[in-house]
Design brief:
Layout lengths: L2 E5 L33 E2 L10 E5 L12 E7 L30 E2 L8 E10 L5 E4 L2 E2 L6 E7 L2 E15 L9 E11 L2 E8 L7 E9 L2 E10 L10 E7 L14 E2 L5 E25 L8 E21 L7 E9 L2 E10 L15 E6 L9 E6 L5 E5 L2 E5 L5 E4 L1 E2 L9 E2 L2 E6 L5 E5 L4 E5 L5 E4 L9 E4 L5 E5 L4 E5 L5 E6 L7 E6 L5 E5 L4 E5 L5 E5 L12 E7 L2 E6 L4 E5 L5 E5 L5 E6 L4 E6 L4 E7 L22 E5 L4 H4 L19 H8 L1 H4 E5 L2 E4 L1 H13 L5 H12 L24 H12 L6 H9 L3 H13 L4 E7 L3 E14 L2 E7 L7 E7 L4 E4 L13 E4 L5 E5 L23 E7 L3 E6 L4 E5 L2 E4 L5 E3 L12 E5 L3 E7 L6 E9 L2 E10 L4 E7 L4 E5 L7 E7 L4 E7 L8 E7 L2 E7 L5 E11 ...
Parallel strand pairs: 8-14, 16-20, 26-27
Antiparallel strand pairs: 1-3, 2-11, 4-12, 5-14, 6-7, 6-9, 9-12, 10-11, 10-13, 13-14, 15-17, 17-18, 17-19, 19-20, 21-46, 22-23, 23-24, 24-25, 28-29, 29-30, 30-31, 32-33, 33-34, 34-35, 36-37, 37-38, 38-39, 40-41, 41-42, 42-43, 44-45, 45-46, 47-51, 48-49, 50-51, 50-56, 51-52, 52-53, 53-54, 54-55, ...
Helix pairs in contact: 5-6
């Protein structure tokens, strides 16, 4: 190609802000190879040209100036270019059209008639398959990225295709034919190539440009495009745009809110303008956004325009000779080439709309959005028309495509700093119909606008102050909840401030924001915990809600989303999403969140909720009420399901979804328990469970083994809690039956015998009831009135988060069952239908009288072979409660895993007694927790009592939790009727004590005096006995277990244990005889487990024994300890325990 020199009359810096100068370029005959579908880009410069000169060629120049206009990138896909069927709209006769986008705008060179280049089009974007999006030859001046899509056919191997971007006419800013840049790619076959031009300064000057296409250095043709110039006058010339298809008696357009009926042949908008200067051009670009395949998505149909002046109304329209296809259209109205407003128009009912949740419907949790790797934090959330999910993450924006591919945009920014393409924490996102992305950065107090390639710029002609939410209306106007400015700001798409609404509804700090189809502005108020609805002009329409946790009450309501006629409210402080109808009434709630932040609804009805606390996005599906088989009614007192008004029914059926086997107990320790090391790690984590690792294997700490002993022993009385929870987990598809028994799809078909995996899983959920947060939530529910518990059950079932119900009866103990439906039987009587694991396959119900605040369960037999046991209670018995099964998904808290000498202020010590005795714990101030005359009292601040629900009629002693910052006296009282053997566990502060085989006669009282701060204790025996005493201690390196078997307690004798400076000190007093007992010492750590034993340790009355485990060398073959026989401080004897 011959060269010709031209001189620029003005510095090229007027054309663009420079980011790089000069540099060599590859010669045209080099053949760069695309890697992974991406083309290598070159920006050629003339080596001989002076700084302010450029080389030119015929028909275009071959090299770029030293001052480049822009950088260009080329990309290509290896997928064949598939011929597109002629769209239906290509056949429509559109009146007033100035441009038909199906026309071939590629001007082919005469010599290229048989070229491999089949077409070239300009576009505003590309799909993942490099199909053009938004085909056009006219671009607004703020366009950040220009695309030239080249379609090839049967290209030979190693074919080089080059795109050269050139100036046609930009006035005196640059000469004609000046090359901006060029890029090239090596291809083969039939593909689409997406060449792109990105102006360094964010925009090209208004004027005419073209893209010249070459194949192996031979010119093939060109395609021209225009960059629209700045308006000759302000866009205030247009005051209002009204879509319509009918007029009133006076001929005025009737606003149809953009809704056109099926069968229309015309789309029209009335453009109201004022004070237009002569020659002002008003135009409308008509776009097919989504016509269900009748035309390519986002393709332009036609352009209508007219010159106006003065003040009047102009109708812009397109008319067809046949009915327009159903779908979503858009008209972009411009004044003198500058976009004023984009108006969405819907024809018929074919446009995808979110599914509507319905009263009585369920919200099915369908999984978490896959994000890999998981971000440090996320908040903002939005969806676009192509199914991409945009997430606001720490330091940027993340886009997840429908195929799961991810792309991160932006860099980390600074607080209160407005910088292009830099983000601190994107709290909310909105995507316009043209694919532009708007973000709100609360910490930086800034909004940004970007394109699909991640080019973001600070946006909006108004200062923001910690904005929280952002939303778009049908015309893509932008509304920002400017929280600390206490206002709603409305902007045009170009960033011009159109309106602001302040001091509405008595003052508001808006957080979430959504715009209804009618243009109403829906807001959440972070101060008054309410929902506020304004009309399009900012006038108050309605407000509802108040602070609270009940249905229709809010605690820090945050984001909003519209799903049909329903409003979805992220009730952040209550960790849920509430569904509200168009009258402001509560419908249902759903979710299992930590810190829910934003919400979005896809066209097909999938609900996405971002959770800042869990750093994930959960997905839900709004479903219709399903037809289910009615519950079986045998042994249900003659009552039949459905005789009353069924308020909620999730479809669970005991004969299908419950277990076929009855609740069962155990005989631990005579039989193997069902708690395994892996289960403890799953519950508390490796750090709490493992004292060390030997050859990669966890060495379980003695304290955790003691905890497992306590769990196994508790389960001897039944596993109802685990069965109630796991059956509902199966129903909610959180677990699958075939994971526990091959080829089993129905829970009722699972067998327990020989199924160790199933036994372990039941045991796991049984054990969680003794940990926080499960026991805290259960105890809190027990304090509610029966009517309130029923309301909680209804709400949870409607939200798709089933519960396990706990019922208690004095003399019988606790039982856990699974509610699945609630029925209003009239006159304040409600039936809560349940699966009772003591009655496989049978339907049962709890009867609740809301008026009397009583509850009654008359079918509480321990199993079908035994007579019924009636459970009942009222508002004062605190014996009826319910906890969502999702609470068990949260990490369990180990209350005794802290170091013995470094306890937190809120640490607790746990007392667990097995056997028929009672405990009464008294602190230094005389305050008590325990049983007094058979009734539970709790006078100690911060203390709590938990009854383990087992279900087999064992009235066990509650587990007591007391603050680990006091000294306590614990009374162990024998039963009134018979002697019993008891077993006491004390867990707290990095140590565990077990008193096994305590002998309690009727009326006998033993006492344990304990300082929980240092885990020092003295045990006073009320009669002569020989309990086994074990003490497990978490050490700095290894963990230890001390076992004392055969210590003889005389009636009235006290034996004390004290931990001090990694020493265990044991002393007896008040006894009448010397003792000989067996002693065992176990060390557990990275060297594995070492055991030392001596079965002839002598301890005289009033002697003191010192066990200095802190100074012990774990390489020794013995563990030595000393005895001071007479308490004079002098060691009289030494003993050694030998390594076993």
């Amino acid at each position: 190609m011959p060269n010709k020199m031209k001189t620029i009359s003005k510095l090229f810096i007027l054309l663009i802000v420079l980011t790089a100068c000069g540099g060599g370029a590859a010669a045209r005959d080099t053949k760069p190879t695309a890697v992974g579908g991406a083309a290598k880009s070159t920006a050629a410069t003339a080596a001989s040209a002076p700084t302010q000169q450029i080389a030119a060629v015929q028909p275009t120049v071959a090299s770029a100036p030293a001052h480049q206009v822009a950088a260009a990138q080329a990309t290509a896909t290896r997928a064949p270019a598939t011929p597109t069927a002629e769209p239906v709209l290509a056949k429509l006769e559109l009146e007033g059209a100035t441009q038909d986008l199906n026309k071939d705008v590629f001007e082919r060179a005469d010599a290229a008639a048989n070229s491999i280049i089949k077409n070239v089009v300009m576009a505003t974007g590309v799909t993942a398959d490099y199909e053009p999006v938004g085909v056009t030859t006219e671009f607004p001046q703020d366009t950040a990225l220009f695309y030239a899509i080249v379609t090839t056919e049967d290209a030979p191997p190693q074919t080089i295709v080059t795109a050269q971007w050139a100036v046609v006419d930009v006035g005196d800013l640059a000469p004609p034919d000046m090359v901006i840049t060029e890029s090239e790619i090596e291809i083969e076959g039939s593909i689409n190539i997406a060449f792109s031009l990105k102006p360094d300064a964010g925009k090209l000057p208004s004027g005419a440009y073209r893209v010249n296409v070459f194949v192996d250095n031979e010119y093939q043709g060109t395609v021209g495009f225009q960059v629209q110039g700045a308006p000759q006058q302000t866009t205030d010339v247009i005051s209002r745009i009204v879509p319509f298809h009918e007029t009133d008696a006076q001929g005025e357009p009737i606003d149809n809110r953009g809704k056109f009926p099926n069968g229309v042949k015309e789309l029209a908008v009335a453009v109201y303008y004022a004070n237009a200067r002569p020659g002002t051009t008003l135009s409308g670009d008509w776009i097919a956004i989504d016509l269900g395949g009748a035309a390519p998505n986002n393709s332009r149909l036609a352009t209508t325009e007219k010159q106006v002046e003065g003040s009047n109304v102009l109708t812009l329209s397109i008319t067809s000779t046949q009915a327009l296809p159903e779908g979503l259209y858009q008209v972009k109205v411009s004044a003198d080439g500058t976009l004023v407003q984009a108006v969405n128009l819907v024809v018929g009912g074919a446009v995808s709309q979110p599914s509507e949740p319905t009263t009585g419907g369920t919200f099915e949790y369908v999984g978490d959005l896959k994000i890999n790797p998981a971000p440090d934090g996320l908040a903002g959330l939005a969806l676009d028309a192509q199914g991409n999910v945009y997430l606001g993450i720490v330091g940027g924006l993340l886009r997840i495509a429908p195929d799961g591919s991810q792309k991160k945009f932006g860099e980390s920014g600074d607080a209160f700093s407005a910088q292009d393409n830099k983000f601190l924490a994107v709290n909310d996102i909105a995507v316009a119909h043209d694919g532009r992305v708007y973000t709100i950065d609360t910490a930086a107090s800034v909004a940004q606008k970007g394109d699909a390639d991640g080019n973001f710029k600070v946006w909006g002609a108004s200062e923001l102050y910690s904005p929280f939410g952002i939303a778009l209306d049908a015309q893509d106007n932008v509304y920002i909840a400017d929280t600390f400015n206490r206002r709603v700001a409305k902007f045009a798409p170009d960033g011009k401030l159109l309106a602001e609404f302040k001091d509405v509804a008595g003052g508001i700090a808006p957080l979430g924001i959504a715009i209804s189809e009618r243009g109403n502005i829906i807001l959440t108020d972070g101060i008054k915990h309410r929902i506020v609805v304004l009309d399009p002009n900012g006038n108050l329409l309605v407000e509802f809600g108040k602070q609270g946790s009940g249905p229709g009450e809010f605690n820090q309501p945050a984001a909003l989303a519209l799903s049909g006629s329903y409003l979805l409210v992220v009730d952040a402080g209550n960790q849920r999403v509430q569904v509200i109808d168009n009258e402001g009434k509560f419908v249902s709630q759903f979710g299992q969140f930590s810190q829910p932040r934003q919400i979005a609804v896809s066209p097909e009805g999938t609900i996405y909720v971002s959770d800042f606390g869990k750093t994930k996005v959960q997905m839900f599906r709004a479903g219709k009420p399903q037809a289910h088989n009615a519950p079986s009614n045998s042994n249900a007192g003659g009552a039949k399901f459905g005789e009353g008004n069924v308020i909620v029914d999730i479809g669970f059926r005991p004969e299908r979804d419950g277990f076929s086997f009855e609740n069962y107990g155990g005989e631990y320790p005579r039989q193997q328990g069902d708690v395994y090391v892996e289960d403890m790690i799953r519950m508390f984590g490796e750090q709490a469970v493992c004292a060390g690792y030997k050859d990669g294997a966890c060495q379980v700490s003695p304290a955790m083994l003691k905890y497992a002993d306590a769990i196994n022993e508790a389960s001897n009385a039944g596993h109802c809690e685990g069965m109630a929870v796991l059956s509902m987990r199966f129903f909610e598809h959180k677990d699958k039956p075939d994971a526990y028994q091959a080829n089993v799809k129905q829970v009722f078909d699972l067998k327990l015998d020989g199924n160790q995996d199933l036994r372990r899983e039941i045991m796991y959920y049984f054990a969680l009831q003794g940990t926080a947060p499960t026991f805290e939530r259960k105890n809190a529910s027990m304090q509610k009135k029966p009517s309130q518990v029923v309301d909680d059950i209804i709400t949870a079932l409607q939200a798709g988060d089933p519960m396990a119900v706990a019922i208690r009866q004095k003399g019988v103990g606790g039982h856990a069952i699974s509610p699945y439906a609630v029925e209003d039987r009239g006159n304040g009587i409600y039936f809560v239908w349940v699966y009772d694991n003591n009655w496989p396959g049978e339907a049962r119900y709890i009867q609740v009288d809301r008026n009397a605040e009583t509850w009654d369960y008359s079918f509480g037999a321990l199993n079908p072979t035994k007579p019924p046991v009636i459970f009942n209670g009222d508002a004062n018995t605190h014996t009826f409660g319910a906890v969502p099964i999702s609470v068990r998904d949260q990490p369990a808290e180990c209350l005794f895993c802290a170091d013995a000498l470094a306890k937190s202020a809120d640490a607790l010590t746990q007392f667990t007694l097995f056997g028929q005795g009672d405990l009464l714990i008294t602190n230094a101030d005389g305050q008590r927790i325990g049983l007094v005359n058979g009734e539970l009292v709790n006078e100690i601040p911060g203390a709590d009592a938990l009854l383990i629900d087992t279900g087999l009629g064992v009235d066990s002693e509650p587990i007591y939790f007391v603050p680990t910052n006091d000294r306590y006296q614990i009374a162990l009282n024998g039963s009134d009727t018979a002697s019993t053997a008891a077993n006491l566990f004390v867990f707290g502060g990095g140590a565990v004590m077990e008193l096994d085989n305590i002998s309690l006669a009727p009326g006998q009282q033993d006492r344990l005096t304990m300082d929980t701060r240092d885990f020092d204790f003295e045990y006073y025996a009320g009669n002569s006995q020989q309990p086994k005493i074990d003490l497990a201690v978490d050490g700095a390196q290894d963990d230890y277990l001390f076992e004392f078997d055969g210590l003889h307690f005389d009636d009235g004798e006290t034996i004390g244990f004290r931990l001090n400076d990694n020493k265990l000190v044991l002393n007896g007093k008040g006894g009448s005889s010397d003792d000989t007992y067996s002693f065992s010492f176990t060390s557990v750590g990275d060297d594995g487990t070492k055991e030392f034993f001596n079965d002839t340790v002598a301890l005289s009355n009033d002697a003191t024994q010192y066990l200095d485990y802190g100074s012990w060398d774990d390489e020794d073959d013995t563990f030595d300890f000393q005895v001071d026989e007479d308490g004079d401080g002098v060691v009289d004897q030494e003993f050694s325990a030998e390594n076993q």
